[in-house]
Amino acid sequence: MKSDIEIAQEAVPKHIKEVAIKLGLTEEELEYYGKYKAKIDYNLLKRETGKKAKLILTTAINPTPAGEGKTTTTIGIADALGKLGKDASVALREPSLGPVFGIKGGAAGGGYAQVIPMEDINLHFTGDFHAIGVANNLLAAMIDNHIHQGNSLRIDNRRITWRRCVDMNDRQLRNVVDGLGKKVDGVPRQDGFDITVASEVMAAFCLANDISDLKERLGRIIIGYNLDGEPVTAKDLKANGAMAALLKDALKPNLVQTLEGTPAFVHGGPFANIAHGCNSVIATKMAMHFSDYVITEAGFGADLGAEKFLDIKCRMADLKPDAVIIVATVRALKYNGGVPKAELNEENLVALEKGLPNLLKHVENITKVFGLPAVVAINRFPLDTEAELDLVKTHCQELGVNVALSEVWAKGGEGGVEVAKEVLRLIEEGENDFKFCYEEDLSIKDKIEKIATRIYGADGVDYTKEADKEILNLEKLGFAKFPICMAKTQYSLSDDQTLLGRPEGFRITVKQINISAGAGFIVAMTGDIMKMPGLPKVPSAEKIDVDEHGVISGLF
């Protein structure tokens, strides 16, 4: 069996100008990054195209070691729509180098449903993440320089909340002490690094509508508090203009292609269990501006990724999905039912029945909480039995949702036609009653309670004293109407990653509350969520290599 990277390297990609022609773009409107990548000026959104694209969201059950294939499905269904004669494109996040070299590997799809050039997309790409990291660290440098130069803003050295970042899993940098040495070397203080995709700069970047909006968002970033307990912003430090200057080219969406030549906008990539986990608003709108059908994805399971896509991104960007694809595998559902990973290839209807409630909860959330039409896409594996597939279909149909089989990993777009036809049927029927999980005028606690009880199925929410104190502070500062970005484990509907399936009788504990004023949301931290991951015992980096001809191997 060929690896993903071998399949990608055997492909004969079209020149990116040929892909752009499908979108109605001219060669003069492309900023080339080689033959197969280009940036598109977001000002083209002002051009009238007459398109009124249908937006299709792909989400999934809670991720498991068995794999679900959400990105692969997203890409494959876009190709399938093309095979059905539809004008389609796909909008995805950029991969972070942390997971690429860590445990997950690449994030450009898989098998015969990939975006290419796969190696470039996974490694550096067009440099967007480096620009975001530099903008983040410029602000950090200006904070410490301001303090060193006399601290006229009276920043409290003990209440600086802004951290440096690097796009790598490096646990050694979670907690550091810097500014050591002589007086000219800075002011010593406790500090730390986050991974770049967890930076608020990334979140603000992905929610911005243009460079002016981005500059304003960057200016609203709260870096800490002064000695009177008042917030200090990046604008107070006069940093947001230079930060925006660093990001002016990165803000332009990246155009690449799928293996089958479908246009793909790959841009931005905040983490879904820490931030909102969606590709940029600009990329999504650009795809919708030049295509009739756009498929995009949200991060991790529907309880995290889809909830944030709908409650945060759609609210801020005035977007409304026309249909939702919920990806699941029989293997992952059996894992949720208690089957060890080594035994997932064996038929086990009892375990499948026990694990199915996880999928059904996600289906209920999409159709009943958010009021959106949905199809369950079963990412089929060769050893799935007909009895297992029939069981999944029966339970989903009881909720009024059809199940379609997806074989895009092995067959590309042809393997996604069944799912694509069901998506088109849902859109054509037009039964869409989209609504948010909560209204923005509720209190901070009421919004968190709505998410916990309606989306996760919790009995309620508990708060630490620290979280209670910060909620009162944020309400006093006028941030009560901000949407909520829950930071929770992706592996469970609860905040305990060991509770698989559809847990009941649990409560969510909010340990910490953080404000992302630039991004425009409040982060509620639960469990043991970290903003700087570490490498596993055997990182993927050990398998990645390059030969004397520059050919990369081991990426996936």
Oligomer: single chain
How helical, in percent, are the residues?
25-40%
The unreliable regions are none
- Give the rounded overall mean pLDDT: 94
The shape, in one word, is: globular
Tally of helical segments: 18
**Which structural class do you get from the secondary structure elements?**
alpha/beta
Primary descriptors:
556 residues; alpha/beta; twelve-stranded mixed sheet; 25 strands
Molecular structure report:
Helix 6 (128-148) runs antiparallel to helix 9 (240-247) and helix 12 crosses helix 13. It is globular and about 70 Å long. The protein has 18 helices and 25 strands. Strands 1, 2, 3, 4, 5, 6, 14, 15, 16, 17, 18 and 19 form a twelve-stranded mixed beta sheet that branches. It is α/β, with parallel strands linked by helices and 556 residues long. The two termini are 13 Å apart.
